[in-house]
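#help-structures

NK: newbie question. if I give both the sequence and a SMILES, will the prediction place the ligand too? trying with nicotinamide-adenine-dinucleotide
OV: yes, paste both and it writes out the complex. here, I ran yours:
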Amino acid sequence: MIQFAIVGCGHIAKKHVEAIQKAPGAELVAVCDTNPQRLQEYVTEYGIKGYTDLAEMLQDDSIDVVNICTPSGYHAPLAVQAADAGKHIIVEKPIALTLEDADAIIEACQRNGVKLSVVHPNRFRPAIQVLKGAMEEGSFGKLSHANATVRWNRNQEYFDKDPWRGTKALDGGVLMNQAIHNLDLMIWMMGEPEEVSSFSATRLRNIEAEDVSVGVVRFKNGALGVVEAAVTIYPRNLEETLSIFGESGTVKIGGPTANRIETWKMESYSDDKIADLIATIDQDPMGKPGHQCIVEDMVVSIKENREPVVTGEDGKKALRLILALYQSAEENHPVRV
Ligand SMILES: NC(=O)c1ccc[n+]([C@@H]2O[C@H](COP(=O)([O-])OP(=O)(O)OC[C@H]3O[C@@H](n4cnc5c(N)ncnc54)[C@H](O)[C@@H]3O)[C@@H](O)[C@H]2O)c1
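OV: that's the protein plus ligand as structure tokens.
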């Protein structure tokens, strides 16, 4: 069994617990939180060892992997500390809030010869997997452009739950916290971005970072991209959509969380093949829980000594795009990524 421990016993850590419990070959052995009350809730509910001091937990040689589930601005020091103790790392998104912090995590994992995976679980969604397959087959021909749209609602209550939410130092705004999933997918499909231009605003929520952002991207391959991200949508989540347009293909993956095929037109696919594809996805649009896919992938990557599917460099690519969008919005000019 590969033994896991979690740092940060908050909201998302519950998904990590469930993922570890369900993943074959994985076992949860310990949790850590600086808040004794939150720690106690997890210790009581899951019957595992709890620590308020990470250094103490890291002395446990049986722990193979540490999952970092703290506020985003704290990911780097904790991940580096755990990697330096020889633990493999799964870090929640965003990998970090600065490129320096992302590099510190990547370098610490390389230095210690441990695996690093970033939680971008939407890559494992069935509709996204078939879209990636079509991209890799070259079925779109020459790419025209992509559109990443996140029209969600996070109300003021959500931000008021914890003091770190919506702050620039520990969280970031809609791009860094919510749209990062869709932007990771857009980069995964379209390749690396070269230049961006963006506007951001804080319109409806009482937070420091942006609650709405619009931007455009030029990718290194010459194709273009459009980004619309908001947590201001009344009264609830409307959609998360990723659309890709090429000379011989048009695909729109939509639904509330980019999990349903809304349009699939492709020269090289027969009508029957497309109907089958849509019917299969419709039967199970979410697929296996994404966090479980990330944990299972870590188990296999340790056993087979291969790279995880979502690497630290992947996490850094999404971060780099978002930081360029922020810089463009702040300085009011296009920015090279
Ligand atoms: N992948 C996803 O879909 C997804 C969804 C939600 C949140 N997240 C990410 O997960 C992270 C946590 O978000 P959350 O909503 O669970 O936050 P949260 O506030 O609910 O939980 C964070 C926990 O970390 C603890 N903590 C803070 N500093 C610590 C430290 N130094 N050592 C140990 N514990 C510490 C806090 O006491 C708290 O219990 C963020 O990076 C967020 O972006 C990812």
